[in-house]
Amino acid sequence: MRRFKLLLEFDGTPFHGLQKQDGLPTVQGEIERALKTLANEEITSFEMAGRTDAGVHARGMVCHVDLHNDRLQLINIKDGLNCLLRPHIAVREVAHVDEKFQARFAATARRYNYKILNRRAHAALEDNRAAHIKYPLDIDLMRKEAAVLVGRHDFSAFRSNECQAKSPVTEILHLNIVQEGELITIDIKGVAFLHNMVRIIVGTLVDIGRGAMPAGTMKALLASKQRTDGGRTMPPCGLYFMDVDYPENLFTVFETC
User: Fold this and answer.
1) Above 90 in pLDDT, residue 126?
2) Is residue 202 within 8 Å of 114, Cβ to Cβ?
3) What is the CA radius of gyration of the chain?
4) How confident is the model over 193-241, as pLDDT tens digits?
5) Are 91 and 256 in contact (CB under 8 A)?
């Protein structure tokens, strides 16, 4: 048996989320189906670095899979999967790693981007690739409020009612807002994220930026810990899983393609 680390990019629009669900198209389900066809074996060990909802995209999702087929070369796995998974999923890299590598449980940080098209006209080319906000936004104020969230906090006010995390305490490592013309990108990296946490943070920043919530809102929300005091939950179409960090020297990479 060999363990492989896969680096994935996908368009989440046609999928009902990342994790496998009976009778519904999901990213994991499609990848496992393709691996089964390629390796001619049942896939019993498969793990993703994170969990994403329906409609969320990825540029750097990581997963691992164990295969018993010892005849497959890395280039065969990469090219074969890309042939079977196109057009919505792409395998950017395949690495043969040792069994110490675990895509989810070895991760030390994850990074997301949220993209907003900020103009009066609706999105045509960016439809399902960015959220549309027609109101003018005070980016400077949004940056000041975002800075309050950096660090280790109780993020109860920024998680959904369906969140099953044992603790609401986690750490945001950076939270930056970049504006390039009509496109706003909110770049957030953290040790771990609660359910809908990024989308709620962005929604609250948007409500602050358009004047629906006052300066000082983020500090107040960290104190109140009440989801009902916070802003909107942004739609999934603007959210991208960008990359994931792993400890150096935790595992061995034998070969990469």
Assistant:
1) no
2) yes
3) 19
4) 999 999 999 999 999 999 999 999 999 999 999 999 999 999 999 999 9
5) no
User: What is the Cα–Cα distance from 197 to 176, expressed in whole angstroms?
Assistant: 16
Average pLDDT, the chain: 96
Question: pLDDT band at 130, cuts 50/70/90?
Answer: very high
Count, in order, helices (H) and strands (E) of the chain. Answer: 5, 11
Domain hosting residue 135, numbered range: 109-242
Q: How many domains does the chain have?
A: 2
Q: Give 22's pLDDT tier (boundaries 50, 70, 90).
A: confident
Residue 255 lies inside a defined structural domain of this protein:
no
Query: Which residues have a catalytic role annotated?
Result: 53
> Do residues 96 and 178 both lie within one domain?
no
Q: Where does a domain end: 106, 136, 154?
A: 106
From start to end of the chain, where are the E strands?
Answer: 2-10, 46-48, 57-67, 89-97, 109-118, 131-133, 151-154, 169-180, 183-190, 239-245, 253-256
Q: Return d(Cα 34, Cα 90) in angstroms, integer.
A: 12
Please enumerate in sequence order all residues whose Cβ is within 8 A of that of 222, keeping only pairs 6 or more positions apart, or say none.
Answer: 148, 149, 153, 154, 155, 157
> The whole model's pTM is what?
0.96
Segment (H or E) for 79 = helix 74-85
Residues 6+ apart with CB under 8 A from 129: 57, 115, 123, 237, 238
Chain position carrying tokens 């929604």 = 203
